[in-house]
Amino acid sequence: MRDLFDDIDIDDIGHDVTLAPGAMLLGGFARSRESALITEVHAIAERAPFRHLITPGGHRMSVAMTNCGNVGWVSDHRGYRYDAIDPDSGRPWPTMPDVFVALARDASAKTGFMDFRPDACLINRYEPGAKLSLHQDKDELDLDAPIVSVSLGLPATFQFGGFKRSDRPERHRLRHGDVVVWGGPSRLAFHGVLPLADGEHPLLGRQRINLTFRKTR
Ligand code: MD6
Ligand code: FE
Q1: 210 CB under 6 A from ligand 1?
Q2: By C-alpha distance, which of 166, 153, 160, 159 is closest to 202?
Q3: Strands (E), the chain
Q4: CA 123 to chain centre
Q5: Which residue has the higher pLDDT, 166 or 64?
Q6: What is the pLDDT of residues 101-153, one digit of tens each?
Q7: C-beta 132 within 6 A of ligand 1
Q8: Does 12 score more than 70 pLDDT?
């Protein structure tokens, strides 16, 4: 029987790892911008607070979410969608900060996707125990654009699978400052995040923040 963590790459700290064709983990790529990123996350969360969305099936998500950009990802009993208005406030989502736009562009260019211009940034907040079940990101109209995913705070175990939910996913540790870029042949791969282990991060405390940048249309 396979041990729970036997396939985690523990040698990848600070290194770039190809996860699959079109998918790269850029180790520590966002580290040098950490304080500007965290300042902006706090400012966004003041205007559009983190909330636990309800899935169309009626479940409360353990991950709390907010957004910035022209549109934001929302879920309720009617389904998943991108909406220009924050349903909690009735106002547009906060503008995407320049430091976010530049990070998404720089990370995607390093992976070979030039001139990525996201119109949405979903911000996920994981507290100990929170998880994200295996899913595909397929609510975006433009599947030619990659997704850029930035990890801040506590480390998490990312599952990266195949194209069927039943394919056994690989596991990769995502640490503070790591960026995953994924597109092309990997764009519709299944992926998820295992329940967050408790811990204390010097900048963010007992939480992990994930930014995922998308071009939705
Ligand atoms: C997370 N990320 O890392 C959740 N989706 O907290 C995602 O769901 C994700 O990291 C598409 C591409 C990259 C990702
Ligand atoms: Fe996703």
Answers
A1: yes
A2: 153
A3: 16-20, 23-26, 64-69, 72-76, 79-83, 120-126, 132-135, 147-153, 156-160, 170-174, 179-182, 191-193, 208-214
A4: 7
A5: 64
A6: 999 999 999 999 999 999 999 999 999 999 999 999 999 998 999 999 999 99
A7: yes
A8: no
Of 63, 75, 148, 212, the residue with max ligand 1 atoms within 8 A of its CB, to mutate for a pocket test, comes to 212
Q: Side-chain half-sphere of 131: how many Cα atoms within 13 Å? A: 13
Task: List the chain domain ranges.
Answer: 16-214
- Cβ of 107 less than 6 Å from ligand 1: no
- For residue 158, the ligand 1 atom closest to its alpha carbon is 3
Backbone φ, ψ for residue 163 (5° rounding)? -105, 0
What fold does the segment set 16-214 form as a domain?
Jelly Rolls (2.60.120)
- Tell how far the Cα of 208 is from the centroid of ligand 1, in angstroms: 12
Atom of ligand 1 nearest to the CA of 210: 6
What does the pLDDT look like over 21-70, one tens digit per residue? 999 999 999 999 999 999 999 999 999 999 999 999 999 999 999 999 99
Residue identified by tokens 């069927």 is 164
User: Whole-prediction pTM value?
Assistant: 0.93
